Task: inverse folding
């Protein structure tokens, strides 16, 4: 009689295959994306419509000129994020180089909007593999990237919580600093290595091939935290195009975006954080508004999402052109997987069988 695998191993097998193969039907994929976007943004849009009279009374204006620096800054934010990933790979003993890292990180970026983000991860894995980085190293680097990005978001969000005007009388707000310490402790190689190995083995998976030193972890946290300052300038300019916000609240606006990022990361409800990130940002950014209006915050959130999408398209267009010119790129479909992605999915399925 064949011995039955332990329960957690079976969970690991299922978890390693669930969501690997997105819907093949173009209509199904399109319906999923449009449906999710409509559902998520509906709440914010309805809030704006319902509270429009209140919003008008708050001195709303639309100064298009303020959108220009936002559109310029946000693609730079994406480029710096790609540099952060290349730096993560370097700490793990591999690197793609600046140009290849931009292509591998940026070309599949729009695939994040496919539910499950399967094509996004596969695209990065395959592009990195073409440059000689093993798949397991790439996947491990993405795990680190998400963990360190979340930690840096907590660092920036801590500023928001400590400076929030409604919390000035509460000493417990300083407790958020303990989260930063806890996150660093968890990412310490002597903790993160054994924890990840134990968890992966319990699920029947191989341990991570490399762990990053504490010095590397701290350097990456600082790097990603500084990138939040960059995005803060872009977000502030977009918000300023909608209503007046004092310049000394720039970091408050930027940290509101970090709150939204962290909320999207921990909820895992929608692709690319659609809606969750925007609603959390709308709630947080109202702290920088004289009226503390959530409706006005929702309007700013919609404007920020629109400009970020434009910035994302500009960045993806540039790195795709570079990739094709240097013959580094592969076709990464949003509505249909490329032949390379189909082959990768099939090989992963055979390996887990």
Result:
């Amino acid at each position: 009689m064949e011995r039955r695998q332990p329960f957690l191993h079976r969970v690991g097998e299922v978890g390693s295959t669930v969501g690997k193969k997105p819907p093949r039907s173009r209509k199904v994929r399109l319906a999923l994306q449009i449906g999710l976007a409509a559902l998520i943004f509906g709440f914010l849009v309805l809030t704006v419509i319902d509270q429009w009279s209140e919003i008008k009374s708050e001195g709303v204006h639309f100064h298009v000129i303020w959108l220009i620096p936002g559109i310029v800054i946000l693609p730079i934010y994406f480029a710096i994020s790609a540099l952060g990933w290349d730096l993560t790979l370097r700490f793990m003993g591999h690197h793609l180089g600046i140009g290849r890292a931009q292509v591998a990180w940026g070309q599949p970026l729009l695939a994040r909007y496919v539910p499950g983000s399967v094509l996004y991860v596969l695209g990065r894995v395959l592009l990195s593999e073409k440059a000689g980085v093993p798949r397991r190293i790439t996947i491990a680097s993405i795990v680190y990237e998400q963990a360190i990005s979340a930690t840096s978001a907590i660092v920036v969000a801590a500023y928001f919580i400590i400076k929030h005007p409604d919390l000035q009388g509460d000493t417990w707000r300083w407790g958020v600093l303990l989260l930063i310490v806890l996150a660093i402790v968890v990412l310490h190689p002597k903790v993160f290595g054994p924890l990840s190995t134990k968890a992966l083995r319990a699920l029947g998976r191989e341990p991570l091939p490399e762990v990053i030193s504490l010095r590397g972890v701290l350097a990456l946290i600082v790097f990603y935290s500084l990138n939040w300052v960059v995005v803060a300038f872009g977000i502030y300019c977009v918000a300023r195009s909608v209503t007046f916000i004092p310049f000394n609240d720039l970091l408050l606006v930027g940290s509101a975006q970090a709150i939204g990022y962290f909320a999207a990361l921990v909820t895992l409800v929608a692709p690319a954080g659609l809606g969750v990130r925007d609603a959390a940002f709308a709630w947080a950014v109202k702290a920088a508004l004289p009226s503390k209006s959530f409706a006005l915050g929702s309007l700013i959130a919609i404007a920020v999402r629109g400009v970020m999408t434009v910035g994302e398209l500009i960045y993806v267009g540039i790195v795709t052109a570079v990739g094709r010119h240097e013959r580094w790129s592969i076709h990464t479909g949003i509505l249909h997987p490329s032949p390379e992605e189909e082959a990768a999915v099939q090989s992963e399925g055979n390996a887990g069988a």
About this structure: Residues 294-325 form the longest helix (32 residues). Residues 245 and 289 are 7 Å apart (CA to CA).
